[in-house]
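Researcher: Next entry in the queue.
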Amino acid sequence: MSSDRERVVGRMPLEMGADDCLRKPLDPARLMTRVKATLRRAQG
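Model: Structure for this entry, 44 residues:
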């Protein structure tokens, strides 16, 4: 995939209303870090 296409595909979920976007292959440690950060902000 070209870098221009990657930028557009990676940005699309955010433009559609998502708060965050994780790319495949999913890194479990990165997912947990993002979940914990989101929970901290929600408790806030």
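Model: Residues 28-43 form the longest helix (16 residues).
Researcher: Noted, moving on.
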